[in-house]
Amino acid sequence: MGFFSNIPLFFVVDLDYTYHILANDAEMFQAGAVMYGLGLVYYPIPLIQVAGSFGASNGLYSFENFDGNPKRTSVPVESTFSGLGFGYNISAALDLGKGKHGLQLGAKYSGASFPTKAGDGNLNGILGFVRYAYRNKNKRE
């Protein structure tokens, strides 16, 4: 069971990466953010996992100008690390498997906010995931 006696609630350390590309015929903006923080995982029933975490984030962003030729491969005009910001992650999953090994199928909403030279940068998105989970499901005595 969980940390709190019979409540299936667990503390976790989370590392999450969010990445976006925005492009048109003349230019492309790429941004990625790493979020690292603390979170909680809760099992309302043994099959379903609900989790959330929050922490610090750093961003990496680059801007490319294609000079009117979108087929040309160019090196980034600017590639910069941001300052420290805030990140979060909320997820829900079906926890398939028994014992200590499981496969999780679910969806998550994650995001990050971090300062850039042009102002505050914000990344967020919803995506599905498949992940392996190792956990201790032994009953306490």
Provide structural commentary.
The chain is mainly β and 141 residues long. It has one domain. The chain has no helices and six strands. The protein has strands spanning 9-23, 27-45, 48-65, 78-96, 101-116, 119-134. It has a six-stranded antiparallel beta sheet, with no helix packed on it. A hairpin with a 2-residue loop joins β2 (27-45) and β3 (48-65). It starts with 8 loop residues before the first strand and ends in a 7-residue tail after the last strand.
Concise summary:
With 141 residues, the chain is mainly beta. It has strands spanning 9-23, 27-45, 48-65, 78-96, 101-116, 119-134. A six-stranded antiparallel β-sheet has the order 1-2-3-4-5-6, with no helix packed on it.
Considering the chains and any ligands shown, give keywords for the structure.
141 residues; mainly beta; six-stranded antiparallel beta sheet; elongated
How does the major sheet shape up? 6 strands, antiparallel
- Average pLDDT taken over every residue: 77
Alpha-beta content class? mainly beta
Apparent shape: elongated
What percent of residues are in strands? over 45%
Topology (SSEs and partners):
Elements: E1 9-23, E2 27-45, E3 48-65, E4 78-96, E5 101-116, E6 119-134
